[in-house]
Amino acid sequence: MRIRACTMALGLLLLAATAQAQAPVADYFSTSSLWDGAPLTVNMTIEAFDADGIRCGYAVANIDGSFLIHVYGNDPMTAADEGADEGEMLTWRIEDKMPDRTLWVANLIGLFSDLRFENGAAKEMLIEGAPLAVENSPWSEVKRLFQ
Predict the structure, then answer these.
(1) Are strands 122-129 and 25-30 parallel, antiparallel or unpaired?
(2) Which candidate, 88, 78, 80, places its Cα nearest to that of 114?
(3) Given this model, what pLDDT does residue 6 score?
(4) CATH code for the structural domain at 20-131
(5) Which helix (H) or strand (E) holds 68?
(6) Residue 69 CA: distances (Å) to CA of 9, 43, 78, 95, 137
(7) Which are the contacts of 90, defined by CB distance < 8 A and separation ≥ 6?
(8) Domain locations in the chain?
(9) End-to-end Cα spacing for the chain
(10) What's this model's pTM, rounded to 2 decimal places?
């Protein structure tokens, strides 16, 4: 009986220790990004998109303007495209607007010296931008403004 209990306990320990497959993920962070010349304001949204336009990362700015965004890669266990591929360049948005510049600053972990997706990477970045001065308007309205 005791041998059976020990065997069962050992089996459960081995099952618990078995690593589960996990979707690839990389972390990007900033402590110095600017929007309209000032640090990001609390709860501003930061999004990452892969080359196919799939949103693969989302975060909000902290009270000091810093952020940490987890960017997810394609899960090799599924057929769907739900994230970035290894080595794929990402597109970034703040408050649903394209920034003026997105720069790689440094790697804490990773090989690529840029903002490409890299499973397991931790990269520091800088985003700078400003909201558009002219809101999207029908072309006829824009034309009328310059006549």
Answers:
(1) parallel
(2) 88
(3) 38
(4) 2.60.40
(5) strand 67-72
(6) 39, 13, 23, 14, 32
(7) 48, 49, 50, 56, 57, 71, 84, 115, 116, 117
(8) 20-131
(9) 94
(10) 0.74
Tokens of 131: 């909201």
CB 73 within 8 A of CB 106: no
pLDDT digits (tens, 9 = 90+) for 34-92: 999 999 999 999 999 999 999 999 999 999 999 999 999 998 888 788 899 999 999 99
CB-based contact 59:67 (threshold 8 Å): yes
pLDDT in tens, 26-44: 999 999 999 999 999 999 9
The residue-averaged pLDDT of 115-123 equals 96
**What are the structure tokens assigned to 95, written together?**
């408050």
Amino acid at 133: A
Look at the block and give the residue holding tokens 């006549």: 147
